[in-house]
Structure formats: C-alpha cells, structure tokens
Automatic annotation (TrEMBL):
Similarity-based family: Belongs to the amiloride-sensitive sodium channel (TC 1.A.6) family.
Transmembrane regions: 172-191
Keywords assigned: Ion channel, Ion transport, Membrane, Sodium, Sodium channel, Sodium transport, Transmembrane, Transmembrane helix, Transport
PANTHER family, sorted: AMILORIDE-SENSITIVE SODIUM CHANNEL-RELATED, PICKPOCKET PROTEIN 19
Its membrane topology: Multi-pass membrane protein
Major localization class: membrane
Signal peptide bounds: none
Protein name as annotated: Uncharacterized protein
Subcellular location, record wording: Membrane
A GO MF label: ligand-gated sodium channel activity
Disulfide bond in keyword set: no
Gene that encodes the chain: 101894950
C-alpha cells in the first residue's frame, strides 16, 4: 500500500498488507507551502524550489515536476548507473535507449566497492509546496472467514485522522513594494515629508 502524491516517485513509505487480515489505515496530511512572492529570492536562500521553476543545479526525473523525493531518486539512479554500470526498473524509472544491465566492468566499480571512499552526495532541496501523508496502520487477523470465499481475504479501511489538515505557510515579511512603502511611511512620520515635498525641495535647489 502506497500513500503518496500522484507525480511522486517513491521507493519507501509503503505498507505490507497480509492475507486474512483487517487493516485500519489512518492518514494525517500535513501541507507545507511557500508563497509565490518568495520567487524573488534565490532557491538556495529560501531553501525550496517551485514545481515549475527551472533550475540546472537540482535534478528532477524526466517528465515529472520538481519534488525532493524525485530529485533524490534521480541522484541515486545516476549514482548506481555510474558506479555499478547497471539499473533496476523495479526501484528506478526506466532509462530510455539504455540496457538495464551491462556485463562490462566499469573502471570505477572498484572505487564504489571501497567502503573508505566518499559515498553518495545528493544536492536536493525541498519543494515549495509539499503535501506529506503520515500513515498509521493497525492490522488485526480475521478470525471467522466467510464460507463463500475460497482465496485469501484482506479488508482495508482507509480514513483521515480528522476533517482538517495542518498547514505550515512561509511568507515574505516585506516585498520590495512593501519595503518602499514602509520607508516612505517612516520619512512621513518623522520628517513630515512626502514625495511631493522632496520634489519641491529639489526644484527649489
């Protein structure tokens, strides 16, 4: 059982359902969002990347929007191909125009097997809008099976923890327009000045 977003490649966060059991799956969604006003800040400073934002530094899966899990999957896949000279579509997306296995030993394969060498380093940041599902599974055996069922039976009850979700929002304290208005308000408060007064002073000089 996978509980995730549709355009998200995931190798983890799965739950096994066993035959002749009743599973209660409780889902608690958490939404983290950064306002679009933060686009004026570099991704490294705001520590997130919008789904449609172009970036050559952070990797993404082909055909998928940017997502931190997709970025980590692309990084892991690239690492495996470079050092093991192989790929497994069971865990990674299929590589176009490339064989899954190559029996020629790559020169860096020995380096990969050296435990004292540098490991995999993935430079991935969060996506600016993240919907995370916290899943709690409670499984109990079915003691009395229906007589008209021959094969194994699995009951799954999926529900939300509550009718609302937790949302964390990040916004700019000041945009450039708000900052200019704030500075103008301070000048007007302490100096009694306005843009018209400044224009008159400059004209008089």
């Amino acid at each position: 059982l996978f509980v995730k977003q549709a355009e998200e490649w995931s190798q983890q966060m799965h739950h096994n359902l066993y035959p002749n059991t009743h599973a209660d799956v409780m889902i608690s969604p958490i939404l983290t969002e950064t306002s679009s006003e933060a686009r004026v800040i570099e991704p490294e400073r705001r520590n997130c990347l919008f789904w449609n934002e172009k970036s050559t530094k952070y990797s993404r899966l082909e055909g998928f929007p940017y997502n931190k899990l997709n970025c980590l999957t692309h990084c892991q896949h690239r690492h495996v191909v470079n050092y093991c000279n192989c790929s497994m579509t069971l865990y990674f997306p299929e590589i176009r125009k490339k064989h899954n296995f190559n029996y020629l030993k790559a020169p860096r394969q020995d380096e990969y097997m050296n435990e004292g060498g540098r490991g995999m380093v993935c430079d991935c940041i969060d996506n600016c809008k993240t919907l995370l599902f916290l899943v709690n599974v409670n499984t109990q055996p079915i003691h009395s099976l229906p007589t008209n069922v021959n094969g194994p039976l699995i009951y799954v009850h999926i529900y939300y923890n509550r009718k609302s979700l937790t949302k964390y929002s990040a916004r700019l304290r000041y945009s450039y327009l708000n900052l200019a208005a704030y500075i103008g308000g301070v000048f007007g408060l302490f100096w009694g000045a306005s843009m018209l007064n400044l224009a008159e002073i400059c004209y008089a000089i």
